[in-house]
Amino acid sequence: xxxxxxxxxxxxxxxxxxxxxxxxxxxxxxxxxxxxxxxxxxxxxxxxxxxxxxxxxxxxxxxxxxxxxxxxxxxxxxxxxxxxxxxxxxxxxxxxxxxxxxxxxxxxxxxxxxxxxxxxxxxxxxxxxxxxxxxxxxxxxxxxxxxxxxxxxxxxxxxxxxxxxxxxxxxxxxxxxxxxxxxxxxxxxxxxxxxxxxxxxxxxxxxxxxxxxxxxxxxxxxxxxxxxxxxxxxxxxxx
Length: 239
What we know:
- Helices cover 27% and strands 29% of the residues.
- It is of the alpha+beta class and 239 residues long.
- It folds into 2 domains: 5-91, Gyrase A, domain 2 (2-Layer Sandwich); 98-238, Cyclophilin-like (Cyclophilin, Beta Barrel).
- The mean pLDDT is 92.
């Protein structure tokens, strides 16, 4: 297993760093470590929160067994021992199912497509084809509840965030920025380039389990027509 850097993040958390790059192999190892810790929770363990190349481990300092000089050191040593003695079956990579997200790339919803077409020197159809050709890994959830940071997009689609963020981006908007793609779960300000919209609710606070997606999941986008999109929206309204 790759060498991990252990950092005391606060009085209630330590950070496990897996380097400074964003790539699938390191993130897969990160998710393996997450699974190992969650399968072998130490006394005081609360939760883990994954990011691109780091894993935060949260704990209750009042209930952690202090076996070393500090609570953080005690947590770090327990995690180190845990990873060294992990059962092989737990340390294996998990295959995850692919979540299919229908997207309408019509100009009414893909409001930045024309601008991107000019900037990237690609036709709108080529942008859509490149975006739907890949299966994306969710590296982390953040920014707003349920927002998935996914990568990586085809290098031909690499693009900067907008110089002037919008005051409001509509929920369900599908966007790209840098080498990533994402979906806005809520209507919020945002500076990513909007290329379409989905009818799928990836965050629904009315549900017992409000998040459709989580870090480590895989996502593919399928193109649908404006008519199909509006029919799906209509069904949601009738419910």
